[in-house]
Amino acid sequence: MGGIDPTAHDVAQAISTGQGLHGKIRSLTLDAARAQMGSIADAFALDQQLTPARAQS
Q: What is the pTM of this model?
């Protein structure tokens, strides 16, 4: 992503595109995510910083 820190949304769209889903993604409310994934949903809901630093090294 050229030195730009992508959002989780950007990463999800890139994964979707790579899987042949044409960038289609869907969002869930935290309650719906908890119902589907359990308490791990809270970890995914944290403010995550995505950087290309490790990929570049």
A: 0.61
Transcribe 19-53 into DSSP letters.
Answer: TTSTT------HHHHHHHHTTHHHHHTS-----SH
C-alpha separations of 39 from 20, 34, 46, 54 in Å: 29, 6, 12, 28
Gap between the Cα atoms of 19 and 25, Å rounded:
11
Measured between alpha carbons, how far is 23 from 53 in angstroms, rounded to an integer?
Answer: 24
Q: What does the pLDDT look like over 14-28, one tens digit per residue? A: 999 999 999 999 989
